[in-house]
From TrEMBL:
Transmembrane segments: 12-35
Residue span(s) of domain Cell wall elongation regulator TseB-like: 47-87
Protein known as: Cell wall elongation regulator TseB-like domain-containing protein
Lineage: Bacteria, Bacillati, Bacillota, Bacilli, Lactobacillales
InterPro entries: Cystatin_sf, TseB-like_dom
Amino acid sequence: MSRSRRRGHGRRWLIGLIVVLVLIAGGATIASIALRPVNTARERVTELAIKRNKITSATQFFRVSRQHTYYSVIGENKQHQEIGVIVKDKSKKITTVQMKNGLSAAEVRNLVKSKYQPKRITSLGLAIYEQVPVWEVTFTDRQGNLNLITFQFSDGKAVRTIQHL
């Protein structure tokens, strides 16, 4: 009787372990499938920027979606200057900015944190707004409201503010 109980107890542990492993594998598969479009866009935009000799390597990637989806990469060119490359969704048209002529992602984050005291910055990325390079930032405030601020890349001036959504 005792041996039978131990065997049943061992089977439960084994079944439980198998269930946990299947759940982990399933979660990893779902995450991989969900991230595939973003990874494909990252590869496409990076390859496009390198192919057009805008950068030699990419160090940062951003994706923002408002009225249009924009993908951007930041990397170095052959002269070791930091360059930002912005591409609208599936377009092959590139907008290039020299990062030294504007705000970095870290500077924009700090600007948002100091001016708006967000609970959490949910997205940040380079985009084009009214034909001007901008940083698009979305964040939740301390009351849980969604906010969208568009900062001009060159000087950090807020060119569009949508608060408390």
